[in-house]
């Protein structure tokens, strides 16, 4: 990722459909608020949900970024032997600069038979700085220390 980031001249289009292929959390100390603590726990105990390298589950993690409409929509599907669990996190996305987007999450939907519930979130906020993007690949760094590598999906 470092070579891609070094080669990047100017960020390309961030809007589109993306599939998370890898993510990791840096060792840097994140803040002390509740959102940071939850985020760090997700990476520690459920890295496959966040696209981590440890793929002990069959997980699909996709996101739709539409900067013109100001939305981000993340869908995670976990396939288990007898059923699937679907998590959908919705939020707002606001351009801060050519390479940085502010994110605030509004709600999470959890669907697993027979449950289907949508819960409001306390608007956790963060930012994503895209350090490389082309027609096929995006590398982004999150404000809480995450590194994300995503593949562009058609449509």
Write a concise keyword list for the protein shown above.
155 residues; mainly beta; 8-stranded antiparallel beta barrel; 2 helices; 9 strands; 12% helix; globular
Q: What is the topological layout?
A:
Layout: H1 2-7, E1 16-25, H2 34-45, E2 58-66, E3 71-79, E4 84-95, E5 100-112, E6 115-120, E7 125-133, E8 137-142, E9 146-153
Antiparallel strand pairs: 1-2, 1-9, 2-3, 3-4, 4-5, 5-6, 5-7, 7-8, 8-9
Short description:
Helices cover 12% and strands 53% of the residues. By secondary structure, it is mostly beta strands. The protein is globular.
Please describe what this structure looks like.
It is a single chain. This protein is 12% helix and 53% strand. The chain is built from two helices and nine strands, in the order αβαββββββββ. The protein has an eight-stranded antiparallel beta barrel with strand order 1-2-3-4-5-7-8-9. The longest helix has 12 residues. The two termini are 25 Å apart. The model has no long low-confidence stretch (mean pLDDT 81).
Strand order of the largest sheet: 1-2-3-4-5-7-8-9
**Between the first and last Cα atoms, what is the distance in angstroms?**
25 Å
Q: Which whole number gives the mean pLDDT?
A: 81
Order of helices and strands: HEHEEEEEEEE
| E-strand count | 9
């Amino acid at each position: 990722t470092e070579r891609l980031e070094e080669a990047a001249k100017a960020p390309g289009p961030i809007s589109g459909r993306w599939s998370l292929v890898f993510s990791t959390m840096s060792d840097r100390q994140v803040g002390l608020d509740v959102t940071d603590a939850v985020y760090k726990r997700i990476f520690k105990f459920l890295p496959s949900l966040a696209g981590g390298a440890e793929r002990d589950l069959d997980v699909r993690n996709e996101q739709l970024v539409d900067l013109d409409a100001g939305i981000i929509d993340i869908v995670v599907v976990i396939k288990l032997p007898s059923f699937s669990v679907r998590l959908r996190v919705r939020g707002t996305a606001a351009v801060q600069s050519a390479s940085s987007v502010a994110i605030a999450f509004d709600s999470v939907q959890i669907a697993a038979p027979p449950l289907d519930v949508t819960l409001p979130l306390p608007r956790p906020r963060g930012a994503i700085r895209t350090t490389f993007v082309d027609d096929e690949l995006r590398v982004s760094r999150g404000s809480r220390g995450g590194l994300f590598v995503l593949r562009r999906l058609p449509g």
